[in-house]
Amino acid sequence: MCGIAGFTQFKQGAPLRMDDLHAMVQTLQHRGPDDEGYYLKKLTGLGMRRLSIIDLPGGGQPISNERGNVWVVFNGEIYNHQELRTQLTKCGHFFKTQSDTEVIVHAYEEYGDAFLNHLRGMFALAIWDEVFQKLLLAKDHLGVKPLYYTTADGSLLFASEIKALLQNKAVLRQRQIDPKQIVTLLTLQYVPAPDTLFKNIRKLLPGHYLICQSGKILTKQYWEIPDFISSPTPIQEAEAVEQLQYKLFSSVKEQMLADVPVGALLSGGIDSSMIVAAMTHQFHRSVRTYTVGFEGENEFNEVHYARKISKFFKTQHQELILQPSMLPELLPRLTKYLDDLIVDPASIPTFLVSLLARQEVKVLLSGEGADELFGGYRRYALDSLSHPVQKIPLSILNLAHRLLRHQSRFRSQQALEALQKSDWNKRHLAWVRLCPLDLLETIIGNTLKYELDQEFNPFTVWADKSQTVVQDTLHQSLFLDLKTWLPDDLLAKVDRMSMAASLEARVPYLDHRLVEFVFKLPANLKIRNFNQKYILKQAARKYLPASIIQRSKMGFGVPLAAWFRNELKPLLLDTLNEDTLKRRGWFDPEASQRLIQEHLKGHADHHLLIYGMLLLEWWQQHFLDMA
Fold first, then answer.
1. Which residues, 6 or more positions from 348, have their beta carbon under 8 angstroms from its beta carbon?
2. Which pLDDT tens digit goes with each residue over 345-378?
3. pLDDT of residue 396
4. Residue 19 forms part of a structural domain
5. Residue 63: which H helix or E strand, with range?
6. Extended beta strands in 497-614, E state
7. How far from chain centre, in Å, is Cα 398?
């Protein structure tokens, strides 16, 4: 696990030097505190910070081939590197280390750009081919690891995090916030790839690679889900259960590979509990597990479920109880790690549990991705009610809307609004909105109102594609969430917060072979009679207590609504004061103050929108107000 950065000059401009590369790499020290390395030749530079996981003494980067004319820097893990090493050795390649990074170099030599089809793992990588004067950037199949890039003064620059790109003076001079993406952020909680909050900085899409050669930049796709889900695979339930157990356990076994201690994030839900079950059954030893809870907030606590699973599997369990007094200092600090902003309060406990785990382990397995594979969200099941709801008389629906708005029950109102829409694109957007559209319209300033008026739908491209490759609305939603919500919110959150603690997070549910298998399964094996994650629950019966399998999904909720009215109130009022709002110009100061007061007095719950406004202000302080 590493942080990587680099550049190549592809057009006439000011050449970059070692000082430029060094400045970029040093901003990534939290991603790799153990080591650093550099390659610089003429107009191309590669750099990295290393978190040593595999081949501790010999796995430094950059690494080259035998002739020293192909170089690589790499962030992530290649889980089948030993298998590939054997194949490549038979083809005549010579290895000088035991690291998975060196396998990438020789796979590229042997297979060319098609080497990506031979990799299993999570990765963001850069290969410089001196012979063909070609820079290749690539990102793993599902987008677990981040990779950002931009062009400035004739050079292409790339890095694991945006802050590294901003070390370049030309990039810093041209940085400019994109108002359209502020609207997107406050609508979805994140900005879908390839866009970011900066107009000139982009993120590489999952399953894609970029080539910079001969003065041109080209992106290509090497893996896509529709190849596997255009029609469901006919399969008996018993066989599906058996294959799912085997494939999930195999993925966990591969991802346990490390030369350092490995643990697991344990919430006590079915997703993380199955990970712990697979670790325990295959390695026959006590697993280190970690969880986080909230002081005095029983509605949000899952610690008792985590304790139950820990006792069941006899894990070495550690807990952290988050106290609101920790947050006034912590929240602004976290924003500098969320340089590609995510309005997801779960970032807070994710960071803290990562700090807890890092005291004992360097690698943590997480249950991310299961909901998007197996249909774990309530909206997936409720969406099947859209046709019956659309037959209800409009007068009754309008009355229901007014009652729900009066009671400030946004999620219920949101569901009713979504179910009324016959157009699937608009229905999906209604399901996933951060806040009601009319509420957002009341607080934004004129610049953002203009962006909102431009037929706003950030999902159009992926949504249209999803409807051409799958036949049912469940798989359309799963496809779209896997392309947007999963990589740009959930995986980004886990990557940023774990790496801020110098911890590697792995996600066994997102082995691309497991994803291919699950997406082949028919919809009635994922949701049956409103029973979500049906096939995963069937697979879990052999390993988990019934009480864990049958419990309702809680999600990784955070009691921010109450904290804003109490412990975080001074921080909120000081940060989003009228002068600051007026100076930034994104929000109407008077309307924003009314919204804040509504929340503080308990007349409404606006905590997510308020959290988004706070993060945006802190982000601007870190990334726009900097010299």
1. 322, 327, 330, 331, 334, 558
2. 999 999 999 999 999 999 999 999 999 999 999 8
3. 65
4. yes
5. strand 63-64
6. 504-506, 527-528, 531-532
7. 37
Instruction: Please tell me the distance from the alpha carbon of residue 97 to that of residue 75, in angstroms, as a whole number.
Output: 17
Local structure of 60: helix, strand or coil: coil
Burial class from Cβ neighbours inside 10 Å (0-12, 13-18, 19+) for residue 487 reads buried
* Residue 24 near residue 167, CB atoms below 8 Å: yes
Last residue of a domain, one of 158, 189, 223: 223
Domain boundary among 517, 550, 583: 550
Coil, helix or strand at residue 309: helix
pLDDT top residue among 208 and 325 = 208
pLDDT (tens digit per residue) in 374-395: 999 989 988 887 767 766 766 6
d(CA 502, CA 55): 18
Q: How far apart are CA 394 and CA 243, in angstroms?
A: 47
How many structural domains comprise the chain?
3
Q: Are 146 and 203 in contact (CB under 8 A)?
A: yes
Sequence-distant (6+) residues with CB within 8 A of 390 are: 419, 420, 422
DSSP 342-379: ---TTHHHHHHHHHHHHTT-SEEE--TTHHHHHT-SHH
Residue 165 is predicted with a pLDDT of: 97
Reading the block at residue 106, the tokens are: 């020789």
Using CA atoms, how far apart are residues 425 and 619, in angstroms rounded to an integer?
Answer: 30
Instruction: Tell me which residue range forms the domain holding 305.
Output: 227-375+507-550
Residue 567: φ, ψ to 5°: -65, -30
- 389 class by beta-carbon count within 10 Å (0-12 exposed, 13-18 middle, 19+ buried): middle
Q: Give Cα separations from 95 to 52, 64, 203 (angstroms).
A: 19, 10, 32
C-alpha distance across the termini of the chain, in Å: 30
Statement to judge: residues 93 and 153 lie in one domain: yes
- Looking at the fold, whether 367 and 299 belong to one and the same domain comes out as yes
Same domain, 104 and 161: yes
Q: Tell me: the pLDDT tens digits for 531-555?
A: 999 999 999 999 999 999 987 766 6
Euclidean distance between CA atoms 375 and 378, whole angstroms: 8
Does residue 56 sit in the same domain as residue 142? Answer: yes
Amino acid sitting at position 394: L
Integer Cα distance of 302 and 315 in angstroms: 17
CA 223 – CA 221 distance, rounded (Å): 6
Q: Hey, which residues does 265 pair with through a beta bridge?
A: 290
Angle between helices 460-469 and 424-432 (to 10 degrees): 120
CA distance 444 to 459: 21
Antiparallel, parallel or unpaired: β 134-139 and 121-129: antiparallel
346 and 212, same structural domain? no
Rg (CA), the chain: 24
The mean-pLDDT minimum among 420-429, 502-511, 549-558, 571-580 falls in 549-558
pLDDT of residue 462: 77
pLDDT tens-place string over residues 469-517? 666 889 889 999 999 999 999 999 999 999 999 999 999 999 999 999 9
Do the domain assignments include residue 495?
A: no
Torsional class of 515: left (φ above 0), alpha (ψ -120 to 50), beta (otherwise): alpha
Q: How many CA atoms lie within 13 A of 20 on its CB side?
A: 24
